[in-house]
Amino acid sequence: MEALKPHAPPSHPFNSALETGIRALVLLEAFYPRQWDLIEMTWLDHLVIHTADLDGDDVPESLHPDLPNRAGELFVRRRLLEHSLRLMQQVHLVNVIDTTDGICFVASEDAPSFLDLLQSPYNLELKRRASWMAKRFAQMTTTEIKALIETKIGRWTAEFQADQSTGIAG
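and the corresponding structure tokens:
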């Protein structure tokens, strides 16, 4: 009789590189053709799951629960997002653009076809919120978005700026 082999621990897709990469891809597709750098993607990634941090009558409820001291999760989120964007680049869903201001990201031409396959309730809600954000921020400059985020979430962007790394390999 063959001995039972221990099973590998179950993977946890919540906030994994894959889940975060898909969130980033959903955002990049919703904002297409606008390009975003790593810090801006971190802002957007936070806001798409915590939409209730924004004001307005039409603001969708947050996808993830409101936890105390969420600003602290942004430091972890940035590193995970960098890894996730690299993953999405490796599978040709995100393009990395080298600009005079640094490295930016944009959805590839393959992104819409891939995202059309994602039809779970969570992904549909994620797409709806990303589309809502793209419409809300369409006419805003990066400076205006940064000011809004500093007002709503706190002044953590300066700390990101001091520790900014844009080393995504092409």
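(Above: one complete record from the training split.) Strands lie at 94-99, 102-107.
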